[in-house]
Amino acid sequence: xxxxxxxxxxxxxxxxxxxxxxxxxxxxxxxxxxxxxxxxxxxxxxxxxxxxxxxxxxxxxxxxxxxxxxxxxxxxxxxxxxxxxxxxxxxxxxxxxxxxxxxxxxxxxxxxxxxxxxxxxxxxxxxxxxxxxxxxxxxxxxxxxxxxxxxxxxxxxxxxxxxxxxxxxxxxxxxxxxxxxxxxxxxxxxxxxxxxxxxxxxxxxxxxxxxxxxxxxxxxxxxxxxxxxxxxxxxxxxxxxxxxxxxxxxxxxxxxxxxxxxxxxxxxxxxxxxxxxxxxxxxxxxxxxxxxxxxxxxxxxxxxxxxxxxxxxxxxxxxxxxxxxxxxxxxxxxxxxxxxxxxxxxxxxxxxxxxxxxxxxxxxxxxxxxxxxxxxxxxxxxxxxxxxxxxxxxxxxxxxxxxxxxxxxxxxxxxxxxxxxxxxxxxxxxxxxxxxxxxxxxxxxxxxxxxxxxxxxxxxxxxxxxxxxx
Length: 470
Known about the structure:
Layout (H helix, E strand, L loop, with lengths): L27 H13 L9 H15 L6 E4 L9 E6 L9 E6 L18 E3 L2 E3 L7 H17 L7 E6 L10 H8 L1 H4 L3 E4 L4 E3 L5 E10 L1 E10 L3 E2 L8 H14 L8 H10 L5 H10 L6 H10 L1 H7 L2 E9 L5 E2 L2 E10 L5 H12 L5 E5 L13 H14 L4 E7 L5 H6 L4 E3 L4 E2 L12 E3 H20 L2
Parallel strand pairs: 3-6, 3-7, 7-17, 8-18, 9-16
Antiparallel strand pairs: 1-2, 2-6, 4-5, 5-19, 8-9, 10-14, 10-15, 11-13, 12-14
């Protein structure tokens, strides 16, 4: 989620006016109903169905008048619940590749006993929506579906066709991911000039005022590594000098203490240059210091204390996330293993990171192997004027003075598959969060009601500008 070569600015640009929150919107009740329906369809891996959610959104589009021939739900024969909806609003110029609106409709697991509220019942409370998926990523899925409903109902015919893809498996790509599957088996389904996706939102100050709208282009590479160590064990009353648990633990401490070098790419430079105008003077000074040549490591460490995501934008990171070992409380361990999760900067080979980890482990007895498919790095798409100018224009009408901030996501989105396939993919939502964030993947996931509705207005106008551009 996440994540830029452009001037960072938030200038007003002339253009058609965008309806503000104060003006009201007669279509809002219908959008709320669509959002509620989508959120309350369980799409978890364990018991949910993306196909059910995709079918429900297809019915919404049919009711708006989109021809059935311009929609399809695609899923592997052996995974009927992992359906993705592909829908097309045809444009005037068939020679132009379409604009792709991408959002995943699967969600992370959620246990009712752990939540204050039912995670699969949309709750509106004190200006917030609560439920699993309200932020990640059914907010954008609902808005993009609503866009096509509105465009079709209005009789709007864009210059460039607009393609909607509501996909499955983003949260559990190690099992199945429909974007990856579609690119390999139905490449025309997602073919597009460029795509809009999750990966960036907006930042509110302490008073709830929008101050920075992020535009994500590029993301780090996800790669897990397995570390394992074996021994013949024995009785715990006869301890050996070497114990696999303590030996691997010592190696993990070394990994925890290791810092990969700072490497400020265009995305990070643009991000910190813009953020330095929005933060306290001491923080701004540290941001400028890490952009110097050479970068100030002490400044980077101070910024890490304030926001771990900032550290993630500056360097490759590897962190121990799971450990298992031993077989009985009164026996010496025969086997111990750990998972180390790495988020690798674009342009850094996975093999180079593996080699560095081996050096840090400094123990040839510990087996170090990649888990799953080797992560593939893609070149971050350029933030050209054709991409940024429409964002600036629409943002200036809704949030005058807001800064437009390029960023690179330190997590992972389906954009990694599209960028690798040659489809430039940008994260932009217009949905702002406070410092506490959305609780995505955690308990009581939330999104500010106003942020969702403002994001709806923003994306409605932005998509039109892109679709009608020369």
